[in-house]
């Protein structure tokens, strides 16, 4: 019976492992489906931009006085180049689509050259010549070829989408099948456990009946039966304790028991002190070592672990609260905010032989003061924390304005970040490099969450031993939908 129960628990572990593997596979399929959606959107954006640029070119040829159409053409061409680059990055792992994109670029190059020649003719006043060039059949062929290539790329992605969607659905079905199997297996194990407990109970009852029937004079037999009964009872108690209590004990119980252990350890230490004072020959070296070193050390490890888990839970709660806090936009002088942060960290900067300075003129933004202060404070504090020993620290904050966005760069000359960890450092509880500084891996995850709430992006550029540069891109004015968040 015990072997069967052990097999059941091992089977449950195997089912749990299989469920985790299926979930991981499901995540991979989900990412592939998402990637296919992004490629399809990029193809649609490419088609839209080509058609828009053609419309703008024709409008300019018909009405040269409308400069706005020419500006629209040029802006659309710039956006088309960026979209093609993004599309190239997305399909770099697909040789067929890469060849299609290469052919598309060649056709677009020919078409763009004709468009630019016709626009140049209009700008020189030769509208008739531009219209004659526009009527060339070569341009029509190029457009048809481009549309054909875009249709082919879109069709390829739709085929991939169908295949990947089928794989995703298959993974989901397999996951549900494993869950159902696990539920059935759990029911079997529970039934076996119940049967085992009932069997033990019946054994105890039979033992008690046998004991009552024995002669009072048969003390040895009674003692043997009593010992057997005691062992069986202990097994039942231990089994029931594990099943019904120990496996469900929460963290707060561990912390409470740790406090009780600390009190008991203090009492043992005091008792050992009295024994050493009154009867030192009774205090063995093992007892001293256990009471004064082993037990306090074990309790310290337990308390440190539970406190760390408590800090992580509190950090996650704090991070979630940041997502629910209402944003309050106001006009902020970023340079003044950086100066104020530097004054707050002046003692740490002095200890680290580091300086914090503002380079150039920082743009003024209208955003949430508390969120921006937390973002910059975290980045600057990280820069101070990870400076190279023996090298005077230089932390600078620079910025510029790009259209309707403000770009802020926090740069240092610290020990840097491995390029493989550039994105992972923004994940919760993930840290890079030697873990010789205090921290739980929360700061940069909080920074990224706050930046996203402000409608911005954050990136890092760094090389080991050469410092790091964190680049923020924020809207100059917090968007209306974020204000209402």
From TrEMBL:
Protein name in UniProt: histidine kinase
Record-level GO BP terms: osmosensory signaling via phosphorelay pathway
Record field: catalytic activity: ATP + protein L-histidine = ADP + protein N-phospho-L-histidine
Record-annotated Histidine kinase domain positions: 242-478
Originating species: Sphingomonas endophytica
Enzyme nomenclature, EC number: 2.7.13.3
PROSITE patterns for the chain: HIS_KIN
SUPFAM superfamilies: ATPase domain of HSP90 chaperone/DNA topoisomerase II/histidine kinase, Homodimeric domain of signal transducing histidine kinase
UniProt-listed InterPro entries: BphY/WalK/GraS-like, CHASE3, HATPase_C_sf, HATPase_dom, His_kinase_dom, HisK_dim/P_dom, HisK_dim/P_sf, Sig_transdc_His_kin-like_C
CDD domains: HisKA (cd00082)
GO molecular function terms noted in the UniProt entry: phosphorelay response regulator activity; phosphorelay sensor kinase activity; protein kinase activator activity
Alphabetized UniProt keyword annotations: Kinase, Membrane, Phosphoprotein, Transferase, Transmembrane, Transmembrane helix
Signal peptide as annotated in the record: none
Taxonomic path: Bacteria, Pseudomonadati, Pseudomonadota, Alphaproteobacteria, Sphingomonadales
Transmembrane segments: 174-198
Name of the top EC class for this enzyme: transferase
